[in-house]
Design goal:
alpha+beta, 27 helices, 26 strands, 49% helix, globular
Length: 931
């Protein structure tokens, strides 16, 4: 028989067997379809968040040809990426961008041909009175209702403004302002009011967001772009504008971008390129994990189905079919089911993607640009499913091809016995994996101790150990998989003494290792990833909590103010600090603060360009940290101060504001001591014999670095410490306020006695209700409006470090679902294959209770092997990373109780569920022949 004929016969037999074993075929196709559906849905949703050039141009320009905006300094080699004007900069020198001095052009039209038509549109924010109060809202000024903006701005109802006191709003704005078309809205910071004459939609603005669209002559602070209705621009035209420091977004360039060359600064990967690479890596990692789990579970199902087919395949072998023909028949079944599962998964994934996009679409037109089908990716996913299905059938096919034809024709089964080579190799690989993990961790810790000067940061030697920490546990998993049949055999020897049900269940698992081992391997892989993620994240969370920079007590809203502007930045003056503090109090009061406290401190002299610019009479007064708490820079390259700046540790706080700033209530005795001139200390390291040491130097000496460091031990190359002008000790009142951004606090009277020249540096408030992200967005917007060209306000809502439960619950739910699913498949296959055995057991007097207890032990063995093996391998990488972190990551931060519950309680839960589900009534006409 020719090769083609053999393939045809094998294909026909495969199709028939798929239809005959419909239950197992549906199970295998479903196992393959589920991850394929997820991958397809993920791909479609992600691709739909990325615009095509045509969609991007429509949302950015409407029907305009281009927009221009002055951003850079003219004549300095300014450049931009063709399709991403925000990706811009100046020439690189020695791999570093040099920022030139100068200002952008005020009017880009001077660089365009005379008579070029343009529409200036400014995007910014305004404070407006709403039905619920005052809100900071996005706003545009300019003739955005021009018909040529169609696609970017679209008039929905009403008409375009015809006067300077008329405006448009988004549809959501009518409800928020409590008006209809024809009603008036009023600005919060001016007596201006506008009549709403219509509603408009803007690309990029969600349907539920309120925005204003004001006439041209309204002075709006923000970013201005000049839209060009008729002036088409080539890439050469854009480059000419770049020389003038102007960026341009051109329809012609975006739709037909130039090819990048090595000399182009913008040829390096942009943010969107990096995001796309991340998505591909995520999809690839998910695909590999899904392939492993599906191949294990589907392989177990194939092994059961193949054994059910042994008699019919033996008939084929008796009439001339070779071992290769039998293998081909089983493998083609996997290919058929892989293709079927892939097609079903793609169809379900497409529908799922549509449902997700329908639920999460915000109506902005840019959240999802369209329903994008990434055909190349979907085709790759289909090929992937076909390969997974084929691979799932490969090992069962090999087993069937080696079976004894005569025994199969008689319907007899011979118990499988473990081969010595597999447990030996499995044990060797397991030990190698553990060794690689330990050695890599020790190597990484040693390498991290080497300075970059002796071993560059980009050295391959630094990159090898992290891979070893991860690869080692994977080898442990492989070793357990290879030794699985032998481990089951050992377990059956032990469990034989426990009970009859345990003996039968363990012997069944060992005798049918082709079904059992893949099941617990899939469970082990799932638990391995979960334990790795839980342990590593918990250690990172613990480290973050220990090193958290608290801006204020948890639940407080703080506002700092610092100098801003271009060029030389001077320190905030006392008058500016008082004005900024008043603005910050207004900001937090509008946010719903019920209590407000102000922290005052000395102004940092480091902002001055040189010591000579500092007034000679200015002093710098500071508390001194005892030398035993200073760090050695030769052995430690970083430090943590928990929000308390050690070089300016003394804060001045009004006594009645202490509870707001510190987040704790003080006793009457502590308040009395504080009023009497004592210093409140939140860090006991500053205290020696119940007092703290305070000394004074000149501010010029502080600028020159001739003061005690309060962080590092003095090094020989540093300037000598100047003699203090005076030094005294102050009684310390030690309190436990670990979340307070204050190390040492004194009253204003004590500060005046010490001669401290202080001014407001931070405002801390306690809101009546916790602030959500939307609340903070409004606070940030209002802070921008209240900031001045010299001083910026920086609000921050202190939520504290993230809690483990925030991410632990989803991970546990996910791994529980996967483990339950894998166990359900394995136990379902076991019950299906045990039907003849159940019939034999019932025929010799086996009770229904015995069969239920067998189900209990089967669930415990399959799930228990998987969870324990996965947990044992999963804790190795976090322990390795903890060893190399030199104390930053601590093993005790790992959620050991949760890991124990995952490894022990979850198998018990599965075993109980297996016991609760009663077995089917046995068919006493089906008896198993034991050869």
């Amino acid at each position: 028989m020719s090769a083609a004929a053999r393939w045809r016969v094998a294909s026909r037999l495969a199709h028939r067997q798929v239809r005959r074993t419909i239950s197992s075929s549906v199970l295998i196709a479903t196992l393959i379809a589920l991850p394929i559906a997820g991958m397809a849905a993920f791909s479609i949703v992600m691709w739909s968040t990325t615009s095509t050039p045509e969609e991007a141009v429509k949302a950015e320009l409407g029907e305009m040809q281009a927009w221009v905006q002055p951003v850079g300094v003219p004549g300095t080699g300014f450049w931009q990426a063709p399709a991403e004007p925000g990706w811009n900069g100046y020439p690189f020198e020695n791999n570093q961008m040099t920022m030139p001095e100068g200002d952008p052009l005020s009017d880009p039209l001077t660089a365009l041909p005379a008579g070029t038509e343009s529409i200036a549109v400014t995007e910014g924010q305004v404070r407006v009175s709403t039905a619920a109060g005052v809100a900071t809202l996005p706003a545009w000024s300019g003739s955005v209702w021009d018909d040529r903006f169609h696609g970017r701005f679209d008039l929905i109802a009403g008409r375009a403004p015809a006067a300077s006191d008329e405006a448009l709003v988004t549809p959501a704005g009518l409800e928020r302002f409590g008006v209809a078309i024809g009603g008036d809205i009023t600005m919060a910071d001016s007596p201006e009011s506008f009549t709403v004459v219509g509603t408009i939609a803007a690309a990029g603005v969600p349907a539920d967001q309120t925005a204003l669209f004001l006439p041209d002559d309204v002075a709006l602070t923000g970013t201005t772009k000049w839209f060009l209705p008729e002036e088409a621009m080539s890439w050469e035209d854009v480059e000419i504008l770049n020389e003038q420091g102007i960026v341009a977004y051109s329809r012609e360039v975006v739709l037909d971008p130039p090819e990048a060359t090595k000399s182009d600064e913008w040829s390096s990967s942009s943010g969107s390129d990096v995001a796309a690479q991340g998505l591909f890596m995520m999809l690839g990692a998910a695909g590999l994990f899904a392939a492993y789990v599906v191949i294990m579970l589907a392989g177990a199902a194939f092994s059961v189905a193949a054994r059910r087919q042994q008699r019919s395949l033996a008939v084929a072998a008796s009439v001339g079919a070779t071992g290769a023909d039998l293998r081909r028949t089983i493998v083609l079944q996997g290919t058929v089911l892989g293709l079927a599962g892939g097609l079903i998964g793609l169809a379900v994934g497409t529908g799922l993607a549509g449902l997700i996009m329908w639920i999460t679409d915000d109506g902005s037109g840019t959240r999802y640009w369209g329903f994008h089908m990434p055909w190349a990716v979907l085709a790759s996913i289909l090929i992937f499913s076909l390969l997974v299905g084929t691979a799932s059938a490969a090992i069962p096919a090999r087993t069937v091809a080696r079976s004894d034809t005569l025994s199969a024709l008689r319907g007899a089964r011979r118990p499988q016995s473990p081969r010595a080579s597999r447990p030996i190799w499995g044990s060797i690989i397991l030990l190698i994996g553990v060794g690689i993990t330990i050695v890599s961790a020790v190597m990484m810790a040693s390498i991290n101790a080497i300075s970059p000067a002796d071993l560059p940061l980009d050295s391959p030697v630094r990159a090898i150990p992290p891979f070893g920490i991860v690869i080692g546990p994977i080898l442990v998993q492989i070793g357990i998989l290879l030794s699985g049949r032998w481990l089951l055999w050992l377990a059956s020897r032990v469990l034989s003494f426990v009970s009859l049900a345990a003996r039968l269940a363990s012997r069944d698992a060992a005798a049918n290792a082709a079904r059992t081992v893949p099941a617990f391997a899939a469970i082990g892989a799932t638990v391995f990833i979960a334990v790795f993620a839980l342990s590593q994240s918990s250690m990172q969370t613990g480290s973050s909590a220990r090193n958290w920079y608290y801006q204020g007590p948890v639940g407080s809203l703080s506002v700092e103010f610092y100098p801003s502007g271009n060029g030389i930045v001077m320190p905030v003056t006392a008058a500016q600090a008082d004005e900024s503090a008043a603005a910050a109090v207004e900001l937090v009061t509008d946010a719903g603060a019920t209590r407000v406290g102000i922290i005052r401190a000395q102004s940092e002299p480091g902002y001055y360009p040189s010591p000579e610019d500092i007034p000679a009479e200015d002093q710098w007064i500071m508390a001194l940290l005892p030398e035993e708490h200073l760090l050695d820079p030769t052995t430690q390259d970083s430090h943590h101060f928990n929000g308390r700046w050690p070089t300016n540790p003394v804060s001045v706080i009004e006594p009645n504001e202490l509870s707001t700033v510190l987040g704790i209530d003080l006793s009457s005795a502590q308040l009395s001591e504080f009023h009497a001139g004592g210093a409140l200390v939140t860090d006991p390291r500053w205290v020696t014999d119940g007092t703290i040491d305070v000394a004074a130097w000149t501010a010029r000496e502080s600028h020159e670095g001739r003061l005690p460091d309060n962080i590092w031990i003095r090094q020989p190359e540093q300037p000598d410490v100047a003699e203090p002008q005076w030094e005294q000790r102050i009684d310390a009142i030690t309190v436990e306020a670990t979340h307070a951004p204050v190390a040492v606090a004194v009253t204003p009277e004590t500060a005046e006695r010490l001669g401290m020249n202080v001014q407001p540096v931070k405002v801390i408030a306690v809101p009546a209700e916790p602030l959500e992200n939307e609340d903070m967005d409004r606070v940030y917007s209002q802070a921008d409006l209240l900031s001045s060209p010299e001083v910026s306000l920086a609000p921050y809502y202190e939520r504290g470090p993230s809690e483990d439960m925030f991410w632990m619950v989803p991970v546990l739910l996910g791994v529980t679902v996967l483990v339950l699913g894998a166990s359900a498949v394995a136990l379902g296959l076991a019950r299906f294959e045990r039907r003849p055995d159940d019939a034999t057991l019932s025929a010799v007097g086996g009770t229904r209770g015995l069969r239920r207890r067998i189900g209990f032990w089967q669930g415990l063995i399959i799930a228990g092997f998987g969870t324990i093996a996965g947990a044992a391998a999963g804790v190795l990488p976090p322990i390795g990373f903890a060893i190399q972190s030199r104390g930053d990551l601590i093993v005790s931060d790992m959620p050991w109780l949760v890991l124990a519950l995952l490894a022990v309680a979850l198998p018990l839960l599965i075993a109980v569920a297996s016991w609760l589900i009663p077995p089917r009534a046995p068919d006493l006409t089906r008896r198993t022949v034991i050869a």
